[in-house]
Amino acid sequence: MKRILTKIISPFLKVFVKYYFSKPRKYKYKTVDGIVLPTVFFPHFTMSTKFFMEFISDKDLMNKTVLELGCGTGIISVFCAQNGGIVTSSDINPAAIENAKLNADRNNVILKIIHSDLFEKIEPVPFDYILINPPYYPKTPANDAEKAWFCGADFEYFHRLFPALPHYFSPNSHVYMILSEDCEVKKIRTIAASNQLRLTPVYENKKWGEVTYIYRIERIV
After folding, report:
1. Contact at 8 Å (CB) between 44 and 53?
2. Half-sphere exposure of 5 (CA within 13 A, CB side)
3. How many C-beta atoms lie closer than 10 Å to residue 184's C-beta?
4. Does the pLDDT value for residue 145 go beyond 90?
5. Are the beta carbons of 167 and 203 closer than 8 angstroms?
6. Using CA atoms, how far apart are residues 97 and 72, in angstroms rounded to an integer?
7. Partners of 218 in the β-ladder
8. What is the domain partition of the chain in residue ranges?
9. In whole angstroms, what is the distance from residue 70 CA to residue 113 CA?
10. Which residue from 80, 81, 26 is spatially nearest to 53, judged by alpha carbons?
11. What is the pLDDT confidence band of residue 7, given thresholds at 50, 70 and 90?
């Protein structure tokens, strides 16, 4: 039923979303007072940003190094910094970099913000926490904005992510990725396994009939 309903309303939603996010929009959650700029991943109609903040809200981030890979608006990064994290935020979309800087200033926190295609410009040092809200729909993105949603027709994003990821965490690190049941989780886990990584579900939340999972990523020993 959900997939059928999505097909019916999606043409309307595309028009509405394009119009609604053609100008900056506010987004508030807990202690974060955010702004979402045009062409940046918007957390309003998806639950991943909120669920990720709920999940990490009880983690001890004080003086811990945190990498948010694909930070979008930077809202999760801001939340981590507010809770004592030493945060690096990266994104491939120049508008997202501008957005993260805006939200850091708006919330009076310090973020190290890097314009980077995955790990391309991030120094290979281990982080205490790595947070990933990836694009997971298998389609070739047409522009930087679509790279927040589409991982490539053959899941190229994950084929690039998983080989590089182990250079950025240690056995004591916490690496988390959020995925929806709406994506091809089995395929993504298979790509991870081919790179000697295991995805273990550690959190789930159901909203509007859709289940969202957070996976911990670990090396396969």
Report:
1. no
2. 5
3. 14
4. no
5. no
6. 7
7. 198
8. 25-219
9. 11
10. 80
11. very low
Amino acid at 154: D
Q: Single out the residue of 61, 52, 55, 68 nearest to residue 168, CA to CA.
A: 68
Quote the CA–CA distance of 25 and 37 in Å, as a whole number.
7
Distance CA 155, CA 153 (A): 6
**Tokens matching residue 129:** 């926490």
Looking at 1.10.10.10, 3.40.50.2300, 3.40.50.150, 3.30.360.10, the CATH number of the domain 25-219 comes to 3.40.50.150
What whole-number distance in Å separates Cα of residue 17 and Cα of residue 22? 8
Tokens encoding 107: 């919330």
User: Closest Cα partner for 32 from 47, 10, 14, 54?
Assistant: 54
Contact between residue 49 and residue 56 where contact means Cβ atoms under 8 Å apart: no
- What's the start-to-end Cα distance of the chain, in Å? 41
Token pair 């965490």: residue: 169
Using one digit for the tens of pLDDT, what is the confidence trace for 9-37? 455 455 555 545 567 888 898 899 999 99
